[in-house]
Amino acid sequence: MRLFVFIAAFLIFVTYGQEQMQINHRGRFFLRNVNEARKILASGLIRQLEPLGLGFITLPPVGPAANMYRMKWSVPMETVANKSLLEISKRKDLCGNYKTSEYSGFYWKYDLVDAVNDVGKRIFGAKFDPILEKLKSFSSAIETLIFLVWAILTYPKSFPIPENAEIGPSEALYAHRYEMGCAFDDVALCILRDTTANGTLYKEGVACTKCPTYCEFVEQADGTIDEGDLCVPPKPGSAEDAGMKLSAEMKEFEDSSSSPVDIIITILVSLTIIFNTVI
Q: What is the DSSP string of 227-275?
C-alpha cells in the first residue's frame, strides 16, 4: 500500500513538474524579436531603418540608451496574460493596449503583420501598402522589423509619457523593464509590470554605460567576445528586483482604494526585504 502511495505521489510530482516546465515557444521567439528591437534602440542604430524604404514614415529620434535591460520571460505574467485572453478576444480592434492597476501591455489578433497593417492604414491609408510589401521582402527579419514599425507608429509623441497614454508595443521599450509574459491563441497578449520610470523610456547615453547591474557580453561567430548593447537583468531577490516590485506595488496602491495604513504597512515590509537583501 505504501509503495502504491509513493508511486502515485511520484507520478503527480513528475506530471506537475512537466506542466511547470512547459515552454511557450511562440512567446520566447517573440521575446527574441523584442530584445532585438531593444538592442537596435539601445545602440542608436534605429536610423539604419532609413534605407529600408519606409518612405513617409518619420523615424523618431530614438536612442542610444545607456540603461536598457535585456528582457526575460516571466511565467507569472504569462499566466496573467492567459487569464485575460478571453476578455481581449472580445475587443473589436485588431490590436491595442492592455491596462490594469498592476500591468500594462499590448495585444494583436490573428497575425502580427495584419495588425500592423491595420494600424498603418488607419494612420496613412492606402499609402501604407508599399511599406508593408517592402517589409515582407526581408523575410529573415520580418518579425523584428514589423514589431519595430509598429512601435514607431505608436511611439510617444511627447515626454514625460502620460499615465493613460496608449503606446502599444512601445510598452516593451521602457529600458528599466526586464520581464514580459505573453499568451497566444487567436489573439496574442503580452504584458509587463506597469512601472513608468517617471514617464521616460530610457537614459540617454552610450549603450550599456549606465546599467544598474552590468553589461552583457556576446560571443561572435569567430569566437571573440564583445561587450553587448543590453544590460543583464536583475537576479530574482536582488536589490534591483525588489526595487522594481516595490515600484509596481506602490503604483498598484495609487490606482486602488487601499487605505493609507495598508499602503504604509506594505511599503515597510517591502523596504525590509530590500534592506535584508542588500546586507
A: EEEEEPPPPTTSHHHHHHHHHHHHHHHHTS---HHHHHHHHHHHHHHHH
Q: 509619457: which residue's cell?
A: 161
- What is the Rg, in whole angstroms, of the alpha carbon atoms belonging to the chain? 21
β-pair type (103-109, 225-231): unpaired
The pTM score is: 0.74
Q: What is the pLDDT along the chain (279 residues), one digit of tens a residue?
A: 554 434 444 333 333 344 344 557 888 899 999 999 999 899 988 766 654 555 556 666 678 999 999 999 999 999 999 999 999 999 988 899 999 889 999 999 878 888 888 888 888 787 777 777 777 766 556 778 888 888 888 888 888 888 888 899 999 999 999 999 999 998 999 999 988 888 889 999 999 999 999 999 877 777 777 788 999 999 988 877 776 666 655 444 444 444 444 434 443 444 444 444 445
Q: What share of the chain is helix, strand, coil (3-state, %, to 5)?
A: 50, 15, 35
- Give the burial string for 182-203 (b: 16+ CB within 10 Å, else e): bbbeebbbbbbbbbbbeeebbe
Q: DSSP strand E in the chain: where?
A: 72-73, 95-99, 103-109, 179-184, 187-193, 215-219, 225-231
Could you tell me if residue 73 is left (phi over 0), alpha (psi between -120 and 50 degrees) or otherwise beta? beta
